[in-house]
Amino acid sequence: MLVILGILIAYVLHTYARGLTELCVKKIMGYRVHCIRFLFWDISYVNDSYRCTKRSFMPLFYIAMTKENVSDKTDIIHSIITKLVETLVDVMIFCLFFNWSKIYFDIWEDDIYSFVMGLAIGIVLFCIVDWVLLLKLLINKDNHLFYVVKKIGRDLKNGYPIEYIDMPQLESMPHKRTPLDENYYQSMRFMQKLYMGNYGELMPIVNWYENHLIMDVQKYQIPSYGNVVFYYSYISQNPDKARVYYDRAREELENDVDANGRRILAYYQLYILKNPAKAREFAQAGLNVLNVGSLSQIERNLEEKLLNNLLEIISYMDQSSYNANYSNI
Q1: How far is 275 from 278, CA to CA, in rounded Å?
Q2: What would the pLDDT profile of 75-95 be if each residue is shown by its tens digit?
């Protein structure tokens, strides 16, 4: 039993060693920290600055780092170099635990010895698992959704028209994928349909969201929650569903100060909460940060169009209200 406990604790230690190693190595390579999460804390890069928020407890260490304009080949090389350094760190930790078990074998009780051996075994096991996953990803990279999503993002950054990017329905794609890849891909499809004004094609994407969003909101699902709230606030105008998904991710949505985050709150305030003053405030805040952050030009154009559209609607409502009051005088 203590061997198993040692392996479980080794997994926690492994995520911290792996995450901190990736932070150091990729920082040297010019990558930027996008998100770090550990214990109760979530440190995210938002609006050209880092923001620390308190989240539910997570014993593991999670880190996501990004770098602009990196080719697939270069990214693969960087990943292999990082994994080699991580392996070196894992070997050092293994040697530490293994030597402890040898040195104190005659002193420690059998239970303590079993626990330390479990730590050593766990470190080796999870190091091997990491390499298997990396090699599997590299072998299948042409058939993995991760690289499809990455290519779409690179095309958007390079100014390729979003309407000409082929994004078939997720269900028809044979690519291997993770939940994170699926959510990012569906969010790109949602943006494409929204940009082209094909509102009727948004419903299948929203149905997919509703079948896959979980109650314990994960960071990678925040854009998905935002899309669902926007859809039910503005496109289909279903207050009950808009409130359900807004309440689930309230903290995350309200802390999103990017242009798209402010846009979602603005439409929710106007169409669900019937608060045009607050909606105008959020819309104006969104316009003020259009050129801040890492949005592509296409995303900026879309957000500018939607935010200005909302301000025009509010102005029209104000004018109509003024005319109605004036006629009653």
Answers
A1: 6
A2: 777 778 888 888 888 778 777
Q: What separation, in Å, do the N-terminal and C-terminal C-alpha atoms of the chain show? A: 83
How far is CA 199 from its chain centroid? 24
Q: H/E element holding 41? A: strand 32-46
Helices 203-212 & 222-230, crossing angle to 10 degrees?
130
Report the b/e string of 76-115 with b at 16+ CB within 10 A. Answer: bebeeebbebbbebbeebbeebbebbeeeeeeeeeebbbb
> Can you tell me the distance from the alpha carbon of 278 to that of 301, in angstroms, rounded to the nearest whole number?
23
Q: What CA–CA distance (Å, rounded) separates 104 from 113?
A: 8
Amino acid in position 160: Y
The tokens for 136 are: 């599997």
Tokens read off for 162: 């979003």
What is the pLDDT at residue 328? 44
Distance (Å, rounded) from C-alpha 36 to C-alpha 38? 7
Q: Is the pLDDT of residue 322 over 60?
A: no
pLDDT at 317 over 80: yes
3 state DSSP class of 310: helix
